[in-house]
Design brief:
The chain is an alpha+beta fold and 382 residues long. The protein has three domains: 2-96, Rossmann fold (3-Layer(aba) Sandwich), CATH 3.40.50; 105-297, ATP-grasp fold, B domain (D-amino Acid Aminotransferase, Chain A, domain 1, 2-Layer Sandwich); 307-381. It is 30% helix and 29% strand. The strands form five sheets. It has an eight-stranded antiparallel beta sheet. Helix 3 (56-68) runs parallel beside helix 4. The radius of gyration is 20 Å and the shape is globular. It starts with a strand and ends with a helix.
């Protein structure tokens, strides 16, 4: 068996279980539906409003426990951005089934990373690596962090650079889309495009709160995104399951972010495929001569199943008592169920709404309705 480490492991462990693939999980939340599906679970981090963090020492000590219990290797999801040294140490305990460690080193240096993209002639919104504050640039810029995920490291209008992994980037009009794919260091097999959704809460304007997919893109846009992905895969020798975010407008397709790991799209895109993504990821990241990723080895999408989810964030401080749990969590469309009585602070994630539909428009309407239902229910119970 293999162990997945991420901020939240529920989506991967639950969708992989449908194929008989039982995983160990290390994550921050320990949701009830995650622990039920996991072969073994350990807690490795903390969550405070606007920040979810993996504790390095907890992670390494937990990884040793998994090794003692016979687990073969480690797969990572979100939460390891900017943690090259931690991954290097983890790889000495259990083999890391991922892209080469060198790519994580690139992602700790904006200068090195964006200079590399320039050499590859990959288009991206203008970055400023020398400015220290917004006062030097103006309102059309945001402060980003290569060492963060889920929009948690993005700031606008106020703030200064405080870490070497931070940089300023020009804000441009357009739509963010994510391409998820399998790779073998040379070849790319696209699995589908999805559309990330940011929270509408005013003090968390860029924080990830959901995803819809698979979405359709016009052929020229899809081909340009795939072309850019191939350049990046070839340069960084990416392997297994990966994701790249793009900014799509009427005029262009531009690179935004690289995620050399399992991403939030995993569960949504797995719905439409008949083979186990997790097993394919293990196969492509195993050190086997001639281990390639040619399209012919992948079954075609069996049936496009449109699905999406939204994260429910606490609108105020409240205690999730037993009455609240029983009243709310008997709804089958809810996932990421808290495991026990728990005090939530304002802006902490509480649970998620997950739905399937026949069309993207129907899905988005249904998600809006269910999200409103949950917030209304919480306001009555707290």
């Amino acid at each position: 068996m293999y162990v997945l480490a991420a901020l939240s492991g529920r989506g991967v462990v639950c969708s992989s279980q449908k194929f008989g693939c039982k995983l160990g999980v290390m994550d921050v939340f320990g949701d009830k539906d995650c622990q039920i599906s996991a072969a073994f679970w350990r807690h490795i981090g903390t969550c405070v409003p606007g920040q979810t963090v993996i504790d390095s020492e907890k992670f390494l000590s937990s990884l040793s426990v998994f090794k003692i219990n016979g687990f073969k290797g480690l797969v990572i999801g979100s939460g390891f951005e900017g943690k090259y040294d931690l991954l290097r140490r983890a790889n000495e305990i259990l083999p890391l089934y991922a892209s080469p460690l060198s790519v994580f080193s690139y992602l700790e240096s904006p200068v090195l990373f964006f200079e590399t993209l320039k050499l590859l002639e990959v288009p991206f919104p203008q970055v400023n690596l020398s400015a220290d504050s917004f006062e030097e640039l103006g309102p059309d810029w945001i402060l980003k962090d290569l060492g963060s995920s889920g929009g948690l490291g993005i700031k606008k209008q106020t703030g200064r650079k405080s870490k070497s992994s931070e940089y300023f980037q020009k804000r441009l009009p357009g739509t963010t889309v994510s391409l998820s794919f399998f790779a073998d260091g040379q070849n790319v097999v696209p699995l589908g495009y999805s559309k990330p959704v940011a929270t509408s809460q005013s003090n968390l304007p860029f924080v990830f709160c959901g995803l819809d997919g698979p979405i359709e893109l016009i052929d020229s846009v899809a081909q340009e995104a795939l072309k850019i992905s191939k350049l990046i895969v070839h340069k960084f020798k990416l392997r297994g399951y990966n994701g790249i975010d793009f900014l799509v407008s009427d005029r262009s397709v531009q690179f935004l972010d690289l995620n050399p790991r399992i991403t939030a799209s995993f569960e949504i895109l797995q719905e439409s495929h008949s083979f186990c993504f997790f097993e394919k990821h293990i196969h492509l990241t195993s050190d086997i001569p001639g281990n390639t990723c040619i399209s012919e080895s992948f079954p075609a999408m069996q049936k496009k199943i449109i699905s999406g989810f939204r994260v429910i964030y606490a609108e105020s401080d409240f205690y999730m008592n037993e009455r609240c749990q029983k009243s709310l969590f008997n709804n089958k469309f809810l996932t990421n169920i808290p495991n026990s009585k728990y005090f939530f602070k304002k802006y902490e994630p509480v649970c998620s709404v997950f739905l399937r539909s026949n069309s993207m428009l129907e899905l988005q309407r249904a998600l809006d309705d269910k999200v409103d239902f949950v917030y209304n229910k919480l306001s009555q119970l707290t």
